[in-house]
Specification:
The complex is a heterodimer of chains A (117) and B (115).
Chain A (H helix, E strand, L loop, with lengths): L3 E4 L2 E4 L5 E7 L6 E7 L5 E8 L5 E2 L8 E7 L2 E6 L8 E11 L2 E6 L3 E5 L1
Parallel strand pairs in A: 2-11
Antiparallel strand pairs in A: 1-3, 3-8, 4-5, 4-9, 5-6, 7-8, 9-10, 9-11
Chain B lengths: L2 E3 L4 E5 L4 E3 L2 E3 L5 E8 L6 E7 L7 E2 L2 E6 L4 E6 L8 E9 L7 E2 L3 E6 L1
Parallel strand pairs in B: 2-12
Antiparallel strand pairs in B: 1-4, 3-9, 5-6, 5-10, 7-8, 8-9, 10-11, 10-12
Classes of the chains: A mainly beta (117), B mainly beta (115).
């Protein structure tokens, strides 16, 4: 199946700094990528939809200036958490959409654990 | 509003036994896809099985099968011959075929397979 990678897998940073998380589709081109946030023992919460070459679409309640998304190519999307605070600590997961025979499937990255001190 | 409900927060099953996880959803769409994803302790989301709403035949993938009841808006997952490696969180998800292909996830069922 299709493979999606995320880097880094975990990061610890100081409050006030910015953190960039990369999401790559390794063996397919993804015109659409998605960013999720998952709290402990909870479901995935969609943060934004990222389309190659255009601005991301953010879900209600997600600050676009706080969570900057760039989808520069068909295989790479980045999420930058700006001026991170302890409440931003979470597990962030990306997914990339692949269309085969007119059927769309999302493949998920392994996630990035962010801890803000 | 479109919603996905998983009414079983936790379940357990003996190794080699069969277990069924329930999922119901609410939508006014006629065409959509349904999925079951597995999230083991590594937290990597893994696609287990998918079902197209226009297909009446229930999807199967080796030991995993679904019971799709479109009229009842029910989409349960049956795991046969449960293995220790099946221990994970299982999420039911829905995507309408129209629109932006955004997943709507259920709250998950934590399954523990007992030796």
């Amino acid at each position: 199946g299709a493979v999606v990678s995320q880097h880094p897998s975990r990061v610890i940073c100081k409050s006030g700094t910015s953190v960039k998380i990369e999401c790559r589709s390794l063996d397919f081109q993804a015109t659409t990528m998605f960013w999720y946030r998952q709290f402990p023992k909870k479901s995935l919460m969609l943060m934004a939809t990222s389309n190659e070459g255009s601005k991301a679409t953010y879900e209600q309640g997600v600050e676009k200036d706080k969570f900057l998304i760039n989808h520069a190519s068909l295989t790479l999307s980045t999420l930058t958490v700006t001026s991170a605070h302890p409440e931003d600590s979470s597990f962030y997961i990306c997914s990339a959409s692949q269309v085969e025979r007119e059927e769309e499937t999302q493949y998920f990255g392994p996630g990035t654990r962010l801890l803000v001190l | 509003a479109q919603t996905v409900t998983q009414s079983q927060p936790e379940m357990s099953v003996q190794e080699a036994e069969t277990v069924t996880l329930s999922c119901t959803y609410d939508t006014s769409e006629n065409n959509y896809y349904l999925f079951w994803y597995k999230q083991p302790p590594s937290r990597q989301m893994i696609l287990v099985i998918r079902q197209e709403a226009y297909k009446q035949q229930n999807a199967t993938e080796n030991r995993f099968s679904v019971n799709f009841q479109k009229a009842a808006k029910s989409f349960s997952l049956k795991i046969s011959d449960s293995q220790l490696g099946d221990t994970a969180m299982y999420f039911c998800a829905f995507i309408p075929t129209s629109g932006t292909y955004k997943y709507i996830f259920g709250t998950g069922t934590r399954l523990k397979v007992l030796a």
